[in-house]
Specification:
The protein is 78% helix and 0% strand. By secondary structure, the chain is an all-alpha fold. It has two domains: 197 residues, MFS general substrate transporter like domains (Growth Hormone, Chain: A), CATH 1.20.1250.20; 190 residues, MFS general substrate transporter like domains (Growth Hormone, Chain: A). Helix 4 crosses helix 6.
Length: 418
């Protein structure tokens, strides 16, 4: 079979869905395997580290150890995704992730455990994820035609949400039955993902062979600053997530506001993922065609309103519905942001822009949990959530004023309404 080229992809009929393109299908199943492996590993590592250390601080350090490489390597990871074959970069990263699973099993199995080696393994995993994420994001536009890309984004986001629902539950069950052998399961899934990526056949894209300079390393940041639509979309999502981190306070709210136990926390935590998954699947069938700018701002505002309602209510049912709505609104925001950013970015820049985008969103999640904790300590959990929702609405108003091009965007290519 002849690999598809950019010309043949662009000429593809608009009615064909993303799964009609074998390269995307292989990539999608690879992503499902990779995300499942990651989610299973997160649960297993958390349980085992807490078992052997008895320290909640150690759990926080595990998350920090995995996230810090993305920040430390931000100028390098995107450049690698733009300079080398993105498929090979992803495969190399997944092999590194398999090695990290082996180190985790070695460090946390039996009585002779080593937390220092476990933290090193998590850093190795973080390095792999830091290089894999921008390469994977930048690869998707090369797998389907431009007119199919929005549906591909929705399916990718749905894969993430679905695996994020199934993965933690599966990880807990596997850890309960087979203990640290669960890391072998994660390693097998990462290996399966690598094999699927190796099967993708597309025509190699032209690669920039100019010498590496500070200018080329900073090109992604400069491109974002020079593109109001891209900067506005990324920063709007960043500050909305930063201020609207209600789920971080679920354990406190379940106990104080809903007078319930940890079972309710699990149910409520699934709410946003369910809303996001359903919305992602809907968008994969009925993608947005027009008025994407106004829809983006409306959905971020809806996310803020849902956050306020969640912070005020004492009804479990109302809280669950508000979280489902928040997840659905956030999915539309992610869908529009990811599509706009990728379609507005030239292919030779997508890796570097994706790296910056990924770090911004990851940082907003981490800092959002910190912000929620600080405001909860000062004002109480419920008022902290409400303040976050109000802050999100303020951000929507300011961004609509500061980024008129984003507010007026009519199509997912960033074109304004005529």
């Amino acid at each position: 079979m002849t690999p598809p080229t950019a010309d043949t992809l662009a000429a593809a009929p608009p009615e064909r869905g993303p799964f009609r393109y074998l390269p995307f299908t292989l990539f999608w199943f690879a992503r499902v395997c990779s995300i499942l492996a990651l989610q299973i590993q997160i649960v297993a590592t958390g349980w085992r580290v807490y078992d052997v250390s008895g320290s909640a601080m150690a759990l926080g350090l595990v998350g920090l150890a995995e996230f810090l490489p993305a920040i430390a390597l931000i100028l390098v990871t995107g450049h690698v995704a733009d300079r080398f074959d993105r498929r090979r970069v992803i495969v190399a990263c997944q092999v590194l992730e398999v090695a990290a699973m082996g180190l985790l099993a070695l460090s946390l199995t039996g009585d002779s455990h080593s937390l220092a080696l476990a933290f090193f393994a998590v850093v190795v995993l973080g390095v792999g994820r830091a290089f894999e994420s921008p390469a994977a994001s930048a690869l998707v536009p090369n797998l389907v035609p431009t007119n199919v890309f929005p549906r591909a984004v929705a399916l990718n986001s749905s894969a993430w949400q679905g695996a994020s629902i199934v993965g933690p539950a599966l990880g807990g069950l596997l850890y309960g039955f087979i203990g640290t052998w669960v890391f072998a399961v994660s390693a097998g899934l990462f290996l399966a993902a690598a094999c699927l990526i190796l099967c993708i056949r597309i025509t190699p894209r032209p690669v920039d062979r100019r010498p590496i300079t500070l200018e080329t390393l900073l090109a992604g940041i400069r491109f974002i600053r020079a593109k109001p639509i891209v900067l506005g979309a990324i920063s709007l999502d960043l500050f909305a997530v930063l201020l609207g981190g209600a789920t971080a306070l679920l354990p406190v709210l379940a106990k104080e506001q809903f007078l319930a136990g940890p079972e309710l926390v699990g149910v409520l935590r699934a709410g946003p993922a369910v809303g996001a998954l359903a919305t992602g699947l809907a968008l994969s069938v009925w993608p947005l065609r027009r008025n994407v700018g106004p829809i983006l701002f409306a959905c971020v505002a809806l996310f803020g309103i849902g956050t306020i309602i969640f912070g005020l209510t004492t009804s479990v049912l109302v809280a669950l519905v508000s979280l489902v709505v928040m997840g659905a609104a956030d999915m539309v925001s992610v869908y529009v942001r990811m599509t706009l950013v990728q379609l507005e970015t030239p292919d030779e820049m997508r890796g570097r822009v994706s790296a910056v985008n990924g770090v911004f969103i990851g940082a907003s999640n981490q800092l959002g949990e910190f912000e929620s904790g600080v405001t909860a300590a000062l004002f109480g959990a419920g008022p902290a959530v409400v303040l976050g929702g109000v802050g999100t609405l303020v951000v929507v108003g300011l961004w609509a004023w500061w980024f008129p091009d984003l507010r007026k965007a009519d199509t997912l290519e960033g074109k304004a309404a005529g």
